[in-house]
Amino acid sequence: MDSLIPEKVAQAVGILREKHIDAWLTFVRETSAGSDPVLPLIFGQPLTWQSALIITRSGDTFAIVGSFETELARSTGAYTTVIPYDQSIRSSLLHTLERIYPNKIAINYSRSDPHADGLTYGMYQLLIDYFADTPWEQRLISAEGIIASLRGRKTPSEIERIRRAIRTTEEIYARTIEAIEPGMTEKEIGAFMHSQLEECGVEAAWKKTQCPIVNAGPDSPAGHGPPTDIRLEPGHLLHIDFGVRQDSYCSDIQRLIYFRRPGETTAPEPLQRGFDVLVQAVQAAVKAMRPGVTGLEVDAAAREVITSAGYPEFAHATGHQLGRTVHDGAGILGPEWERYGETVHLPLEPGQVFTVEPSLPVPGFGHLGIEEDVLVTEDGVEFLSTPQTGLILR
Question: Is the pTM of this model over 0.90?
Answer without folding.
Answer: yes
